[in-house]
């Protein structure tokens, strides 16, 4: 299957998912569940828009409750039992293809239940390249990935970043070290799911002359950009995050994900269910 082909979920999947969670199968829930299964990378706001375009009358609160359920331990387990793991594009939010054992074995080896093997499909990579080429230097680029629900771990390979002057120049415009910037990057590495404001608060506690919030946002956006994440993944650094809790980690043998990915799909990270949340779900089911 090529990366720009849409992966179709079986018609009975939404019904099976709701059955496993012992939820009444209303027309509204079935439509919303079908969308969340086929587009697991979309945010709530974009999912609402997509359902309206499909003519489905789904209330925002209903979709929010379902989305929260999808990210609960029990919901993650029910989803895996219903459709398994798949490759998901963070650019368009679509499920691209089922993930076969060659891709998931490295995750099972870490006691993780794989759900979304995330990255960027061929079409979205092409769009990102075109966007970068058309952006004037110094201008803020549009956030083409704002449509997806970013519950991921951002892993910054500091060793490669600081040992490669060209990477430093590419991301920061200079390969000269700045103690305040370096300190901000170190905190980003240690707190990969923290936003710019949380990072600034951490820095203010430890560093009296911390960077401004604007500077921290610029560093964070550059190192969390799709381009950076694809590059870091190619360097062998891929992170995983539990969809149900805040736990995260680094996946060994990242090259195995690249070798198993669909045609011209660039993997960047994985959303999974950690062993603790998996145990909790099994006890509840």
Number of strands: 6
Q: For the terminal residues, how far apart are their CA atoms?
A: 34 Å
Largest sheet: 6 strands, mixed
Structural class label: alpha/beta
Helix fraction by DSSP (H/I, runs of at least 4): 40-55%
Shape: globular
Strand adjacency order, main sheet: 2-1-3-6-4-5
Q: For the CA atoms, what is the radius of gyration?
A: 19 Å
- Percent strand: 5-15%
So how many helices? 15
Low-confidence stretches: 136-148
Element string (H = helix, E = strand): HHHHHEEHEHHHHHHHEEHEH
Mean pLDDT: 86
Labels describing this entry:
6-stranded mixed β-sheet; 285 residues; 6 strands; 15 helices
Please, could you describe this protein's structure?
- The chain is α/β, with parallel strands linked by helices and about 280 residues long.
- It has helices at about 15-20, 25-40, 45-55, 60-70, 75-85, 100-110, 120-135, 160-165, 165-170, 180-190, 195-205, 215-225, 225-235, 255-260, 275-285; strands at about 85-90, 95-100, 115-120, 240, 250, 265-275.
- Strands 2-1-3-6-4-5 form a 6-stranded mixed beta sheet.
- A hairpin with a 5-residue loop joins strand 4 (about 240) and strand 5.
- Helix 2 crosses helix 4 and helix 5 packs across helix 15 (about 275-285).
- The radius of gyration is 19 Å and the shape is globular.
- The relative contact order is 0.16.
- The model is unreliable at about 135-150 (pLDDT under 50).
